[in-house]
Amino acid sequence: MSFILKKTKSDYVVDFFIYLSMTLFGLATLFPLYYVIVMSITPIAEVLRNGGFVIWPNEVTTEAYKYIFESDRIPKALWVTVRVTVIGTFCNLLVTTFLAYPLSKKFLPGRNVVLVGIVFTMLFSGGLIPLYIVVRSTGLLNSIWALIIPGLVSSFNLLIMKTYFENLPSEIEEAAKVDGCGDMQTLFRIVLPLSLPILATLGLFYGVGHWNAYFGGIMYMTDKDMMPIQVVLRNMIVSPSVSTELNINASDIQQLPPETIKMATVVVAIIPILIIYPFLQKYFVKGMLLGSIKG
Q1: Which top CATH class is 64-290?
Q2: What is the pTM of this model?
Q3: What share of the chain is helix, strand, coil (3-state, %, to 5)?
Q4: Which of 11, 78, 151, 175 lies 20 to 30 angstroms, CA to CA, from 266?
Q5: What pLDDT, in 10s, does the model give residues 1-47?
Q6: Which has the closest alpha carbon to 118: 167, 160, 164, 147?
Q7: C-alpha closest to that of 79 among 33, 295, 87
Q8: CB 79 within 8 A of CB 229
Q9: DSSP string for 249-292
Q10: Which residue in 191, 193, 201 sits closest to 280, CA to CA?
Q11: Boundaries of every domain in the chain
């Protein structure tokens, strides 16, 4: 026998305020992104007429996007960031997997010592100056590897993947061993196909981290052609002259306010992540939950 609970008036009032608060919170979250997009396509006359604050433009222009892509600085910075993100994420997942899989086996000799060392690196580090000296001494300055190798493995992500592997049924691997599969065959043919949720989750973590990283570009890049998009964007924001950062004549962009060009650059920098994220979202929650059941 099933029972149907009827909502009282107070329940409807509570539901109304919950939905209202969630709606307002969602609008407050989306408004900055909306404002950036609107400012990037608003003509200068309307920007000046409205005192620099436009909610709904009467006219639309793509001049800012035309100028930033006509400049060689933005395409080069995007190409650097794309290479760092793609190559870096692949290397991150590869090395993290090769470390996490053996550490998920309790019979591994010295396993606890290695885990203690990994946790230790989450609490303590050598500092920025020793890190810079190491990167410089290895000849990685002005190379995309300077943005990849120093952060090749995240201890937090490594522990999440290790826990995920521990939650996989051991019977599957034992059956693979009985069929003659070695450790590498078991990993690539059995374990990794079952680990798409955690791979997608950590791939998103690593990828977004590479795409948004700018501190490494400031530290290790002196060649402007090797600076990632976030560093170029940061330089545009703090620089008094946008044309100097874009390496174009100031007279060519005098009909556009600097803020419009900066907003267009922000949109260009965030659009790729916004496009990729929906395809990985279905794996995100599942990967995080399954990777955090055990300590």
Answers
A1: mainly alpha
A2: 0.80
A3: 75, 0, 25
A4: 151
A5: 455 567 777 777 888 889 999 999 988 888 888 888 888 877 777 66
A6: 160
A7: 87
A8: no
A9: -GGGGTTS-HHHHHHHHHHHHHHHHHHHHHHHHHHHHHHHHHTT
A10: 201
A11: 9-61, 64-290
